[in-house]
């Protein structure tokens, strides 16, 4: 069963942008808000434990051959 929430004090600029986006997507403002909330909730965020496990695996494979600069570069590129 759907739940109702109320959002107060939405800044005018955000509300106006939301209205434009809703119009472009042929949705009500309410449907647009639900769409963006769903998108945000479903967005992929890596689990810190998975990141640590991957880093340990890479370290073991590298056997200490990576410099700190190479490690930082891999992190920036999203490879870790």
Description:
This protein is mostly helical and 80 residues long. It folds into 2 domains: 12-42; 45-80, no CATH class. Helices cover 64% and strands 0% of the residues. The protein is built from 4 helices and no strands. It has helices at 12-24, 29-42, 48-62, 68-76. The longest helix is centred in the last third of the chain and has 15 residues, at 48-62. The model has no long low-confidence stretch (mean pLDDT 87).
List the helices and strands and how they pair.
Layout lengths: L11 H13 L4 H14 L5 H15 L5 H9 L4
Helix pairs in contact: 1-2
- Integer tally of domains: 2
**Beta strand %:** under 5%
Low-confidence stretches: none
The secondary structure category is mainly alpha
User: What's the helix-strand series?
Assistant: HHHH
Task: Give the biggest beta sheet.
Answer: none
The shape, in one word, is: elongated
Task: Name the descriptors.
80 residues, mainly alpha, 2 domains, 4 helices, 64% helix, 0% strand
In short:
With 80 residues, this protein is mainly alpha-helical. It has helices spanning 12-24, 29-42, 48-62, 68-76. α1 (12-24) crosses α2.
């Amino acid at each position: 069963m759907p739940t109702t929430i109320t959002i107060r004090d939405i800044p005018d600029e955000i509300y106006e942008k939301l209205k434009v986006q809703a119009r472009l997507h042929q949705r009500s403002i309410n449907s647009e808000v639900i769409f963006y909330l769903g998108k945000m909730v479903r967005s992929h965020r890596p689990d810190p434990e998975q990141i640590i496990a991957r880093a340990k695996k890479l370290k073991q494979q590298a056997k200490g051959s990576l410099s700190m600069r190479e490690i930082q570069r891999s992190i920036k590129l999203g490879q870790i």
